[in-house]
């Protein structure tokens, strides 16, 4: 049973507090940061204790059916809390909010606010409406005609000592893949100006952020607002890779204007927009890591056509090979869907063979699940759950082989590591730090106690490969690094606190 909070009258003069729970992709994590910044500007204070929260925001994902079910289950656990604390405002944001709209208010009556991704800036006003009118409200309007992009708050990043941060360059999607709900939940493609993107990145870098990930549903389709999109299809509708990529030029402009930035990543690109110009940028810009996450979804041309991916296996492999040739030890990770309607065993075998042909360093693998408003609903979901489970397990096993091969090939080499955070500190006094290599592998390194490695870019000699990470030894003198601050947590008796789990998916 959830513990009741002291009466709202007792807390009337206390600063309002919020709790944000994040479910889903990197775009959702980014949106949650924007929610935090909007609330911080209105004087709200962050907490991870539901007993102290005046506002709880659940930021949702609807790409997978299980995520939607988890949301409804989570909201069910919050009902007693809401009943015991009528003054608590409960908001649902993100893709499920956009998908369901006002229907969610009827479906879950104790929800106060349903907030679409394009309406984040309106959240404080919506909270005021609920508090004053005592009535729920849904706001899920796309900003198609006047796109708004909320800046990442450099001051918030500095406060939280963020090593990495996200910057949106575009939102929405025009690809219309038959399995995907994103065009429904995020709308059509809208683009941000290069000047806004660069200015935001510069502010974050000056605030201490070392790595930026550019975000967009098809991030490498970016071009300046008002410009015509580059023509990437030939007369037969097949993808080509001619012309100067607008996105590649954006990467070059960022590298030139923000030289203090250590790394510049982007996700998720579409294979059709991996132009020759983008490949050249990877070969020539040191700030770009030797890694790209390039979703493929299937290794079968027949399935790719049913998915409306608008490229062939052969085109994907050619683009993968071009990227891998652009830098030494360049790695690729990807996304796969198994059990798409009509997928045969022969189709799936082509997916397995693609894993070994490309040699992916990692992959996110999912079973197909029907999503509302998607064209694939018209196709018969004729692959059984047992077949999906079997294929998913075999795909994971195949990816594990190529991942292991990549990690083991790095033993004995030297790599540059951007340290993200302290992993753990053992009884021996040695601090174990966690970071990412220039290829995006997780690397654990040891350091003397008392030093703060967070945000440092170090050279490490790789000594061992684990199942999903590397162990390395830091080379060079660390005496220039600052001492690690010691914080004393404020303890709340266990019988006076009630926490809700805060989850983030990278």
Number of domains: 3
The global form is: globular
List low-confidence stretches. Answer: 1-13, 487-506
CATH superfamily of the largest domain: tm_1862 like domain
Tell me what you see in this structure.
By secondary structure, this protein is an alpha/beta fold. It folds into three domains: 17-141, Rossmann fold (3-Layer(aba) Sandwich); 154-406, tm_1862 like domain (pyruvate-formate lyase- activating enzyme, Alpha-Beta Horseshoe), CATH 3.80.30.20; 414-475, Nucleic acid-binding proteins (OB fold (Dihydrolipoamide Acetyltransferase, E2P), Beta Barrel). Helices cover 32% and strands 20% of the residues. The protein has 14 helices and 19 strands. The protein has helices spanning 26-41, 65-84, 95-100, 103-107, 123-133, 154-159, 182-186, 194-206, 246-257, 276-284, 301-307, 313-326, 345-358, 385-409; strands spanning 17-22, 45-46, 55-60, 89-94, 113-115, 137-139, 164-168, 170-171, 190-191, 211-215, 263-267, 291-293, 331-338, 362-367, 414-425, 431-437, 442-447, 457-465, 470-475. It has a six-stranded parallel beta sheet, sandwiched between helices. Strand 15 and strand 16 form a beta hairpin. Helix 13 runs parallel beside helix 14. The longest helix has 25 residues, at 385-409. The protein is globular, with a radius of gyration of 24 Å. The model is unreliable at 1-13 and 487-506 (pLDDT under 50).
């Amino acid at each position: 049973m959830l513990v009741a909070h002291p009466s709202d009258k007792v807390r009337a003069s206390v600063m309002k507090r919020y709790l944000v729970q994040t479910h889903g992709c990197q775009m959702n994590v980014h949106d949650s940061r924007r929610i935090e910044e909007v609330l911080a500007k209105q004087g709200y204070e962050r907490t991870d204790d539901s007993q102290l929260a005046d506002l709880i925001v659940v930021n949702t994902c609807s790409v997978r059916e299980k995520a939607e079910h988890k949301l409804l289950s989570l909201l069910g656990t919050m009902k007693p809390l809401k009943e015991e604390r009528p003054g608590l405002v409960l908001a649902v944001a993100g893709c499920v909010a956009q998908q369901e709209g006002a229907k969610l208010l009827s479906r879950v009556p104790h929800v106060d606010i349903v907030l679409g991704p394009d309406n984040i800036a309106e959240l404080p006003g919506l909270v005021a409406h609920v508090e004053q009118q005592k009535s729920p409200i849904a706001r899920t309007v796309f900003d198609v005609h006047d796109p708004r992009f909320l800046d990442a708050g450099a001051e918030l990043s500095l406060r939280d000592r963020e090593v990495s941060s996200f910057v949106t360059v575009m939102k929405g999607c025009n690809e219309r893949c038959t399995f995907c709900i994103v065009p429904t939940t995020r709308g059509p493609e809208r683009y941000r100006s290069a000047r806004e993107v660069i200015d935001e990145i510069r502010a974050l870098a000056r605030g201490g952020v070392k790595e930026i990930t550019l975000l967009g549903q098809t991030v490498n389709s970016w071009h300046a607002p008002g410009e015509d999109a580059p023509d990437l299809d030939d007369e037969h509708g097949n993808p080509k890779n001619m012309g100067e990529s607008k996105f590649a030029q954006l990467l070059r402009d960022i590298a030139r204007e923000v030289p203090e930035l250590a790394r510049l990543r982007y996700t998720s690109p579409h294979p059709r927009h991996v132009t020759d110009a983008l490949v050249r940028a990877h070969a020539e810009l040191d700030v770009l890591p030797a890694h790209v996450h390039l979703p493929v979804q299937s290794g079968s041309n027949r399935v790719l056509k049913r998915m409306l991916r608008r490229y062939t296996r052969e085109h994907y492999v050619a683009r993968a090979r071009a990227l891998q040739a652009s830098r030494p030890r360049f790695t690729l990770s990807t996304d796969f869907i198994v059990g798409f309607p009509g997928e045969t065993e022969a189709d799936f075998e082509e997916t397995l063979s693609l894993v070994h042909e490309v040699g992916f360093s990692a992959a996110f693998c999912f079973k197909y699940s029907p999503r509302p408003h998607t064209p694939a609903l018209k196709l018969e979901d004729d692959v059984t759950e047992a077949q999906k489970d079997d294929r998913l397990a075999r795909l994971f096993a195949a990816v594990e082989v190529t991942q292991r091969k990549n990690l083991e090939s790095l033993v004995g080499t030297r790599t540059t590591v951007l340290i993200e955070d302290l992993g753990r500190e053992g009884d021996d006094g040695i601090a174990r730090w966690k970071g990412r290599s220039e290829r995006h592998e997780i690397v654990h390194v040891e350091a003397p106690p008392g030093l703060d490695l967070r945000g440092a870019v170090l050279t490490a000699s790789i000594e061992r490969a684990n199942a999903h990470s590397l162990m390395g030894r830091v080379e060079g003198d660390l005496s220039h690094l600052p001492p690690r601050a010691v914080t004393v947590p404020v303890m709340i008796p266990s019988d006076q606190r009630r926490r809700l789990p805060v989850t983030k998916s990278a």
